[in-house]
Amino acid sequence: xxxxxxxPVGVEEVELRFKNSRFIGVVGPAASVEEARAFxxxxxxxxxxxxxxxxxxAAGYGxxxxxxxxxxxxxxxxxxxxxxxxxxxxxxxxxxVVIVRYFGGTxxxxxxxxxxxxxxxxxxxxxxxxxxxxxxxxxxxxxGYEFYEICKLQIESCGGxxxxxxxxxxxxxxxxxxAEHLAQLQTAVQDLTSGRVLVELMPQD
Length: 205
Hints:
This protein has helices spanning 33-46, 80-90, 109-127, 148-157, 182-192; strands at 4-9, 12-18, 21-29, 52-59, 66-70, 95-102, 129-134, 136-143, 161-167, 171-178, 200-201.
């Protein structure tokens, strides 16, 4: 599980030409499928007269990533798939690329289309700035009231954040923490409570 990954900051556009056809690559952040589709719709609205609006996105990263793509009426496999291959190969997450094409009068052929969409996607991803996003996981624990304060302090010292507290016969905590710090927290809590309190990773939604 990756501790962090790169995500795009802001929106960038590039334009390339292949045999007089214009290829405009637009890249931006998309942390969810809904954000990706909203971004795609915004690019379609900006360039409504274009012949094609090809896209590829990776919402999330690693084990929780959702990919999407569309050839948008280009020959199957010549547009969306090459663009998605570039996105996957870039090692970034939360990203969407839309490639707008204005036909220039000369057919590019299958190989030409693959080359054009691949290079436009590469140029777009190279143009945008990136920042590191820490991969968070959710965990839970149940503990006696005598351990509440020391465990709460330990969670905070490991960079975790308590999302919910349930005070009943025992205290039940739901928390989020950087993936790389979970094992450290689990070990520390076990040591502090002589093994009587366990921090468990919650299953992904």
